Amino acid sequence: MRWWIARRTHDAAQPEEADATDLLLSAYLDDDLAPAERDAFERRLSDDARLRSDLAGLREVVASLGNLEELRAPRAFTIAAEDARPPRGFSRLELGVRVGALAAAAAFVLAVGVDLQRGGSNERTAGDTVAVRSAAESTSSEYSAPAAPAAGGGNSAGVATAPERSLTPPTDTAAPASAPAVVPTTFVTQPTAAAATTTPASSAQRQQDQPSTPTPSPIASRTPGGANSTSTTTSALQGAAAPTTTPAVAAAASVTSAAAPALAPVLTATATPTPPRPTPTPTPPAPPKADAATPAAVQGSGSGSTQVAPALPADSITSTPVAEERVAAPSIAPSTGSLGAGIGTDSPSGRVIVPAPAANDDWGQAAVRVSVTSHEGIDSVRASEFGLGALALGLGGLTGWFWYLRRREAAANV
Amino acid sequence: MTEPPTTDAAPRDDFPADATAALVQRARAGDVAAFNQLVLQHQDAAYSLALRFLGSPPAAEDVTQEAFIRAYRGIAKFEGERFRAWLLSIVANAARDELRRQRRRPQRSLDAARDDPDQPALDPPDSGPSPETSALTGELRGQLEAALRELPEDWRMVVLLSDVHGLAYDEIAAATGVPVGTVKSRLSRARGRLRDLLRGVREPAGLPGRLEDRR
Q1: With contacts defined as CB-CB under 8 Å, which chain B residues touch A80?
Q2: pLDDT digit string (tens) for A13-65?
Q3: CB A372 within 8 A of CB A301
Q4: Which residues of A, range 32-91, sit inside 8 Å of B by Cβ?
């Protein structure tokens, strides 16, 4: 092993030494040595016959190379004026990349501008259609809305707001024993004046088709309750019963809840206490019975998001999942009235909308809509924005690369 | 013992500097005829550099033509005094680009072409005699040309520009895009390799050259 290492070291050192000698010889031939170096090298030459031999061989090589005759060109390489004209414009690829970069940049700016014009939030405007599913259909959901910790500050409509929450889906844990009594999410499709567009016929038919027994919502059952959320919803419902509510604003009261991840199923639950007087909407024929001791609760599907409404008569709660409905989102424009300020806290993942009743509705007619809207569409919009941005950056980089190559070629030519 | 350093690689720019400068000025003004006179003056040098570097006459022709077109397009930016060195640097760049292009392109197998009766017979570029063959013929030029082809490309270009075409260190550095120190290093190695190759050819059974000592 030692022999191998020594041999390797020796072999490695030899070329370096030879290269250093050749470098010195070459510099001496080209008169590129300083006077002191040249004197020292000449003294070394006088003592080293091998060095003199190497110098003679090197001198012969240089002289021979210098004596190589120029080869005759096989033809004249004269140029024509049109051939020598520099190419105008860009190549097809370069032109395509530039146009693509401009288009992508314009699309990106347009998308961002539209988003900013909408308020830069996830708000949906009136007229947007949101997919609605029943809570019963969303039982398989692993997602839940967080609690609304406080009532909407000073809002008579009781619009509760919820802080931003972690997007981490909650674990499937049972509700603590100390949690407030949870009523199964007994909902009835109640097309109110401004909130829902569910057709009465379909709603009634659906109610007839659905079993009348209230089904506890798995989401609700695994949702731990909290004092804040309880008071929040209570406030919301009280506010919803405020007689000063205007119809336009009635549907505007919303509770926006943070939380459900983007792929959380759309959940809309409408709890409608028994209306004391007829409404345009057909009343479900057989409202299910609920536990009288249990207050009506509207569950935001999520951990800590229990929103408990005031205790209602047990027989006033009907339940019908509103499966696969598409309802028009209520108007949430803040300028629609005093309750309009009750726009829920913007949430990146979902919101709970609690529309207030119409002005002529009393508390019994208040329809509470809890809607956890999916942000799948919004996320897709943002994904497209990011995609366009990435595309613009990529195409811009290609354009820059083309520019660099052209500059480099121009520099190399000169 | 004092031997004055001498180099026989004299510059080949035999044309009067004034006449060349006048032609350059006219060419810079867009006079194609004046530029073509410069082409005729220097095309042999340009073609020689391209052919010795590439080893293929067709490729050398293409490179030479491309270099003159590049030179005409860029002559407005030429402000030096040595038009020949500037032109050869363009040829060197074009030749290196051509070499890179050849590497990217899939090369056709000569054996496959030979086996295909429908294909016309290829005329491979004259690779010249091998060092052994050159030793038998005893022609120094052939030996040197063959030894040049044995050099690495970077070394070959430097030694061609320096010892064949007489460019200075800084001109070679500008043409090849490497520092002057690298030019000196490559030049000394190329010369040493050529010396060893030639020594090995001349003394095939005799004393081994230094190249064999190193390996």
Answers
A1: 32
A2: 455 666 788 889 999 999 989 999 999 999 998 999 999 999 999 998 999 89
A3: yes
A4: 32, 42, 45-46, 52, 54-55, 57-68, 70-81, 83-84, 86
Do the Cβ atoms of B77 and A414 come within 8 Å? Answer: yes
DSSP class of residue A179 equals S
User: Which whole-number Å values give the CA distances from A144 to A87, A355, B187, B211, in the listed order?
Assistant: 63, 20, 75, 79
Q: What is the pLDDT of residue A108?
A: 79
* A79: closest CA of chain B, how far (Å): 7
Q: Which residue of B has its CA nearest to A72?
A: B44
**So where are chain A's domains?**
16-66, 91-122+390-414, 126-374
For the segment A180-206, what is each residue's pLDDT rounded down to a tens digit?
444 444 344 444 444 433 344 444 444
How many beta-carbon pairs below 8 A join chains A and B? 159
Q: C-alpha angle A114/A117/A123, rounded to 5°?
A: 95
Which chain A residues have a beta carbon less than 8 Å from that of B7? 29-31, 62-63, 66
pLDDT at position A344 is: 43
Separation of alpha carbons A326 and A132, rounded Å: 5
Buried b (16+ CB within 10 A) or exposed e, A4-41: eeeeeeeeeeebeebeebbbbbbbbbbebbeeeebeeb
Alpha-carbon distance A369 to A185, whole Å?
Answer: 11
Residue of B nearest to A65 (CA): B164
Give the best-scoring range by mean pLDDT among A215-219, A240-244, A388-392, B46-50: B46-50
Contacting B residues, span 93-152, partner chain A, CB-CB under 8 Å: 93, 140-141, 144-145
User: Between β-strands A129-132 and A325-328, what pairing exists: parallel, antiparallel or unpaired?
Assistant: antiparallel
3-state class percentages of chain A: helix first, strand second, coil last, to nearest 5: 40, 5, 50
* A140 part of contact set with chain B, CB < 8 Å: no
Query: What domains sit in chain B, N to C, each tagged with a CATH number?
Result: 17-104 (1.10.1740.10), 127-214 (1.10.10.10)
H or E element, residue B182: helix B180-202
Nearest CA to CA, how far is A4 from chain B (Å)? Answer: 15
CB–CB of A365/A201 below 8 Å?
no
